[in-house]
Design a protein that fits this description.
By secondary structure, this protein is an all-alpha fold. Helix content is 73%, strand content 0%. The chain is built from seven helices and no strands. Helix 5 runs parallel beside helix 7.
Length: 202
């Protein structure tokens, strides 16, 4: 299924000159990976500690965009500038999951969404990425199948944050937002598992 991940090559092309300069300065892929995670944790913690400041939710789309750029850059530094490493692989996957949790769970502080739905989405997002990583063990490589991959989750989460900050979520709809995203994430995990099973059987 098509996802926003298909736009990644064009995004990387825009970033390539900057990545070249960073490599020349000695900036490492692992350093960029850790920076992206710390940025997400800082933003998520701030929002969770100050739930009365709804405007702080606008940090989420900003951080998500910056994180997307940083994630693209760390991958390019690793692949195109000889910085690929086993440590980098672990950091990339673990920091991605930590960053997701840091930006999803603060929504539980906003009662209109329902904490259980937020937590369900957080768990489903982790399962989706885990299923994608297991594609390597299945012999098909890291799996990015949709319909609700990392880029799609980021877009949906950013939209949810903006609408919540603006107070535009109808009370009748808000409780279903995160359960729907959790369901789409589980469907994505299933698609990734199915792809692995088909690939390994072949």
């Amino acid at each position: 299924m098509p996802t926003l991940y298909a736009l990644k090559p064009a995004f990387q092309d825009r970033l390539r000159p900057l990545v070249g300069r960073l490599a020349a300065m000695g900036i490492t892929a692992n350093g960029i990976t850790i920076l992206a995670a710390l940025l997400s944790i800082a933003a998520g913690t701030t929002i969770a500690l100050l739930p009365g400041w709804r405007i702080l939710l606008l940090l989420i789309p900003v951080v998500l965009f910056v994180r997307m750029a940083l994630n693209a850059m760390d991958g390019m530094l690793a692949r195109e500038h000889g910085q690929a490493s086993t440590l980098g692989m672990y950091l990339n996957e673990i920091c991605d999951v930590v960053s997701d949790l840091a930006l999803i769970l603060p929504f539980a502080a906003f009662g209109q969404f329902g904490a259980w739905g937020v937590v369900a989405f957080a768990i489903a997002a982790m399962l989706t990425e885990f299923a994608g990583v297991l594609g390597i063990a299945a012999g098909i490589g890291r799996n990015y199948a949709g319909p609700f991959g990392k880029s799609d989750r980021a877009l949906a989460l950013g939209v949810a944050a903006v609408l919540c900050a603006a107070g535009l979520w109808p009370a009748s709809i808000a409780p279903f937002v995160f359960p729907v995203m959790a369901t789409l994430s589980l469907l994505t995990a299933i698609n990734r598992i199915r792809a692995g099973l088909i690939g390994s059987a072949g």
